[in-house]
Design brief:
The complex is a heterodimer of chains A (224) and B (402).
Chain A: E1 2-13, E2 16-28, E3 33-37, H1 44-51, E4 59-64, E5 67-68, H2 74-84, E6 85-88, H3 100-110, H4 115-128, H5 144-156, E7 162-166, H6 174-189, E8 193-197, H7 201-205, E9 209-214, E10 217-222
Parallel strand pairs in A: 3-8, 3-9, 6-7, 7-8
Antiparallel strand pairs in A: 1-2, 1-4, 4-5, 9-10
Helix pairs in contact in A: 3-4, 3-5, 5-6
Chain B: H1 3-16, H2 18-54, E1 60-65, H3 88-93, E2 100-115, E3 118-127, H4 131-134, E4 139-142, E5 156-159, H5 161-168, E6 177-180, E7 183-191, E8 196-197, E9 200-201, E10 206-209, H6 210-217, E11 224-229, H7 235-249, E12 256-260, H8 261-304, H9 306-314, H10 319-355, H11 365-392, H12 395-399
Parallel strand pairs in B: 3-10, 5-7
Antiparallel strand pairs in B: 1-11, 1-12, 2-3, 2-6, 2-11, 4-7, 5-10, 6-7, 8-9
Classes of the chains: A alpha/beta (224), B alpha+beta (402).
The structure holds adenosine-5'-diphosphate and magnesium ion.
């Protein structure tokens, strides 16, 4: 469960304050499927980064699974991020020199999980995301859809409770985008929380709860 | 993060940019190899000098006429003015000292040594039976000069092995007569080949009794008195005794120079050690250069791998893990460079040994430890700043395309 209260984030750009987020209050229940839409610059990514503990708010408080995470140290945040949160990015962000399976393995390596335990998990993830044939390939040998599937498998490798996807289909063609989306939606079907930032109204409409943002504020919250 | 994973991760990075890795390995390797080779040369020279002095015999004290203020110069190259010569009587007076085990007065000249038709110019040493023990000489055949009163002599001589073969060919030399100047000597011993000692090649000398040499060269002046102290601890006492005894005999004049092997050796040792250390430090500077190269490469890596670092943080890496990844990379580079440098240094050393077999080139243990350690230390030191910068990267900014 995610509870944001009075969250604000201001950037200083050339001496001028840019209010990326102005007092956002938001509660996301466990297992929800949420889409965030809105024009470019409305604060969608900033909100996602704060939910994902990559960024800190300037004001407000954040409760994750009934625990206040606003005041945690950087290292503690890293640990929470590692265990509870999976990120999926528009540009995949795979490490180019590592193979698909090595990329998927990264979070488990950072968490210090025993190699003997990593092996079966990796096999399961590769099978689940249809990547068995591509396990030994590097990102430049993979299609965009395959890259994003690797990124999703990587995000899922630690069994997070929340998956945050920032325009995950923004860099893919329509068909592949649909495919990747259905892979992401499995998270929701398996009972996990899924938050997707998107420009595509068609994709946004598939979520069970749809947020609209404008100028750093949530202006629409539709669960119909 | 597990050590194996950390190493593997760094290994992937290094493998991913081969030319960069090789460049740093080269720089590190050159630095380490330079330290190893330079210290091997210095240590080789030191050991060589020490072994040369060791060949002089143990607990040796050398007395030469003339006062020299230089305390640690090499015997033989010392030129002091000789206001009064050193005589056999001076030498015999040394018997009074309890710190002296034995002594051998020495006269040196060049003589024309002949037998039948063959003739050869060699250094001729006049001395006593004690010379053999003091200089640790060994005989291949026969006996050394007989003991007895050095004021009287028998017409006998001991010759070097090369002199023997040149004068007698394959015929046995022992018992034969040779002519030196206008005197005849019977060969009673042949020296075993021993190489250089006291500035002479023992293969090429002829040794005759002291009194004979005095007559041959028509001189009473001794070239040296070689003294063996009773023990290492007695060297100082013996030296003092010598100075006092001769001073009393020379009407209070301090007109001799007493050199102890210890002092000379210690001086050489100090000089060569200092020299080795100095050149080693100069060589170590190349390691610092390698360190700066590592720092630059790492700083570039932090910029180039911004997104990767941001990603790792998004995946839950702590600042410490990011720093550790960079340090591991640097350590691998340093280790690889050090290993390569040690191998190259050893190669250079063995080549030097081939070229100069007489000199025991051997990098001292401290250099073999210090060079890789310095490589490691510079690698870590110069990675501090880049690693810190990487660990502090803001993941949001690092991941954004801005
Ligand atoms: N790191 C940053 N530094 C300065 N300004 C930023 C930064 N991140 C975001 N902004 C600004 O904050 C506002 C919201 O940005 P963002 O959350 O990326 O919007 P969206 O994802 O909805 O396009 C924009 O005006 C953007 O320029
Ligand atoms: Mg955005």
């Amino acid at each position: 469960m995610i509870r944001l209260t009075g969250i604000a984030r201001t950037f200083l750009v050339g001496g001028e304050e840019v209010h990326a987020l102005r007092t956002v209050d938001l509660e996301i229940a466990h297992g929800e499927y949420l889409s965030i839409m809105g024009p470019s610059g409305s604060g969608k990514s900033t909100l996602l980064n704060i939910i994902g503990l990559l960024d800190r708010p300037d004001a407000g408080s954040y409760e994750l699974d009934r625990k206040n995470v606003t005041a945690l140290s950087d290292d503690e945040l890293a640990r929470v991020r590692r265990e509870k949160i999976g990120f999926v990015f528009q540009f995949f962000h795979l490490v180019p020199r590592l193979t698909a399976v090595q990329n998927i393995e990264l979070p488990m390596i950072l968490a210090g999980i025993d190699p003997a335990e990593r092996k079966p998990r990796l096999a399961r993830l590769l099978a689940e995301y249809g990547l068995e044939e591509r396990a030994g390939h590097r990102p430049d040998q993979l299609s965009g859809g395959q890259c994003q599937r690797v990124a999703i498998a990587r995000a899922m490798s630690m069994g997070p409770t929340v998956i945050l996807a920032d325009e995950p289909t923004g860099n893919l063609d329509r068909h592949t985008g649909q495919e990747v989306l259905s892979v992401l939606e499995r998270v929701h079907q398996n009972g996990g929380t899924l938050v997707i930032v998107t420009h595509d109204p068609e994709i946004g409409a598939r979520a069970t709860r749809r947020l609209r943002m404008l100028d750093g504020a949530v202006v629409g919250d539709d669960s119909g | 993060m597990r050590l194996a994973d950390l190493l593997n991760f760094a290994w992937q990075v290094l493998r991913g940019s081969v030319s960069r890795t090789l460049l740093i390995l080269l720089a590190m390797g050159i630095g380490v190899a330079a330290v190893v080779m330079v210290t091997a040369l210095g240590e080789g020279a030191r050991l060589y000098v020490a072994s040369q002095f060791g060949a002089l015999g143990t607990n040796l004290i050398i007395v030469l006429p003339g006062r020299s203020e230089t305390s640690g110069a090499m015997p033989g190259v010392l030129i002091g003015k000789t206001p009064r010569s050193l005589t056999l009587e001076d030498a015999l007076a040394l018997k009074r000292s309890h710190a002296i085990r034995r002594f051998a007065p020495l006269i040196i000249g060049a003589g024309d040594v002949r037998t039948g038709a063959r003739s050869r110019e060699t250094p001729v040493l006049g001395s006593t039976s004690e010379l053999m023990d003091i200089r640790s000489m060994e005989l291949a055949q026969g006996v050394f000069l007989p003991p007895g009163d050095p004021r009287h002599s028998q017409p006998v001589c001991v010759i070097g092995s090369k002199v023997a073969s040149e004068l007698f060919g394959s015929r046995p030399a022992l018992g034969e007569w040779v002519r030196i100047g206008d005197r005849r000597f019977r060969v009673i011993g042949i020296l075993a080949p021993q190489g250089q000692s006291l500035g002479f090649n023992t293969n090429e000398i002829v040794i005759v009794p002291l009194a004979a040499a005095q007559a041959l060269f028509n001189t009473e002046s001794l070239f040296r008195i070689l003294i063996e102290a009773k023990s290492r601890e007695q060297i100082v006492a013996a030296q003092a005794d010598v100075e006092e005894i001769v001073r009393l005999r020379h009407e209070g004049e301090r007109d001799i120079t007493v050199i102890t092997q210890d002092a000379v050796l210690a001086t050489f040792d100090r000089i060569l050690r200092a020299l080795t250390l100095t050149v080693a430090s100069i060589a170590a500077i190349s390691l610092a250069v390698a360190g700066i190269l590592i720092m630059n490469v790492m700083l570039i890596a932090v910029t180039q791998r911004r997104r990767e670092i941001g990603l790792l943080k998004a995946l839950g890496a702590t600042g410490a893990q990011i720093r550790l990844a960079f340090f591991t990379e640097a350590m691998l580079l340093a280790l690889g460079g050090a290993a390569a440098g040690l191998v190259v240094g050893e190669l250079g050393r063995s080549i030097a040994v081939q070229l100069f077999p007489a000199i025991p080139f051997q990098a001292p243990w401290w250099a073999l430890v210090a060079a890789p350690a310095t490589a490691m230390l510079t690698a870590v030191l110069f990675t501090l700043a880049p690693a810190r910068r990487a660990a502090r990267l803001d993941p949001v900014q690092a991941l954004s395309r801005r």
